[in-house]
TrEMBL record:
SMART domains: Costars (SM01283). This is Costars domain-containing protein. The lineage of its organism: Eukaryota, Sar, Stramenopiles, Ochrophyta, Bacillariophyta. Residues 13-24 have a biased composition (Polar residues). Residues 1-26 are annotated as: Disordered. It comes from Discostella pseudostelligera.
Length: 134
């Protein structure tokens, strides 16, 4: 009897561990989804005012971007795998890949009113000015 009760408690421990792992995976996936949504906004904000593209170095150096992402290169890689962005480098490293252009695949304006898009572009231009002055 004791061997069957110990195997059932061991089995329930594994089941709880699997549930915890599943919950953690869901949390990580939800965080990544939010980061990718924010990435689209940041590319419009920081990048070229006429096209949804930005140099990796400019995106990396933006203060809001630095505060938001746990790992910008990892978020960009996940967005690339999902077909959200494209860029011509297998990896992105600060310094070595600053001039790599990151393009949004969907070039239509983000789901926002045009005046909000213009506001995003202006705040990105202000951020670039602040970076160049430092």
């Amino acid at each position: 009897m004791s061997s069957s009760s110990s195997s059932s408690s061991s089995s329930s421990g594994r089941q709880m561990s699997c549930q915890d792992s599943g919950s953690r995976v869901n949390e990580v996936e939800a965080r990544l989804d939010k980061e990718i949504q924010q990435l689209v906004i940041d590319i419009w904000r920081v990048g070229d005012p006429d096209k949804p593209q930005v140099k990796f170095g400019e995106l990396f150096d933006d203060g809001d971007v630095q505060q938001h992402y746990e790992g910008l290169a990892a978020t960009l890689k996940a967005a690339k795998k999902r077909g959200i962005v494209t860029y011509q480098s297998p990896i992105l490293l600060k310094g070595a890949h600053d001039k790599v252009m990151v393009h949004l695949v969907d070039t239509s304006p983000i789901k926002t009113h045009d005046e909000n898009l213009e506001e995003l572009k202006k705040s990105g231009a202000d951020a670039k000015l602040n970076i160049s002055q430092s």
